[in-house]
Amino acid sequence: MEIRAPVKLDKKTKNLVNRIHEGEIAIINHQDIDEIAANSLVNKKVLAIINCQQSISGRYPNLGPSILEKAKIHIYDVQQGDLFTKLNDGDMITLQDEKVILNGDVIATLEKLTLDKINNLLETAEKNIESELEKFIDNTLTYAHKEKYFILGNLEIPTIKTLLYNKQVLVVVRGQNYREDLSAIMPYIKELKPILIGVDGGGDALLEFGLIPDIIIGDMDSVSDECLTSCREIIVHAYPNGDAPGLDRIQGLNLTATVFPAPGTSEDIAMLLAYDQGADLIVAVGTHSNMIDFLEKGRKGMASTFLVRLKVGSKLIDARGVSKLYKSTLKMKYIMWLFVAALIPIIITIFISQPLVNILRLLFIRFRILLGI
To answer: Which Gene Ontology biological process is one annotated for this entry (predicted)?
Structure first.
């Protein structure tokens, strides 16, 4: 099979999906492609993916490649060659016989991930999960000791303009199934009107549903300019030493922001902020909630997430999976019963209304005349 198309390159997949277009080849540098990245690439309808890392390393059973294969998107792992130094956005390449050809020259050799190869790699990864879990626990305990002040009250929470006291707060991360879960809780959002906090790209997730975020919080690396200019308040997640690379982008847009120095993830500090400001309830969409999530995130231990959930647990509701919990289909028997129920008042009205009875009698007589009986 020969594939010829232009390329787009980025070592961060979440940045690439904001630039790539349908029918292009994605050049990525993403070890263990996760579900979120895979779904983003599927939505962009890329023609093929060339990964300069291992799409499945065997550390744990990541499901990204399976999602891509199911969507009929060709996946290749680079075996030899440095594509990031030899290619630029827009270059037209040819994929032939597991080789990358540019202007007639072979610049890289590839291995195509077929369904059988993906399944074999996932089987190997399943066998390694216990070893990975042991490392995960050790790292979590180490980081938990370092970050214990997360729940001991020693973290300085900044003052914000948005009032959260005694209000319900919806924290949205653009994680797995965020669209389905947001759709499932839209009646809740419309009725109770919670304060909307978008964690980086979670702000754009809210915009997808016609909702304007009250607060955007994060390092500002995966949220659109449109979202930043439309939201009501911006909080930049900084390193514990106060360094905030995302602040340059905010200032470049002539916007103002509050800086929040803290370890951990942006979704952690979003929950901590809501809890500290006296939120009555915190509803989370798309956040990390299981071991595969944490392994895909890639940060050792993800201890801060555990510590934060310990602290805010009494006020936290995880909406993840709501769409699956309430997913159902309208069965034909229910439609028939609805039809019968709707007919009952019509029939009763006919029998108690004399004019309608007379009309029915006339129609019956005319029917007999037409049939000659």
So the answer is: thiamine diphosphate biosynthetic process
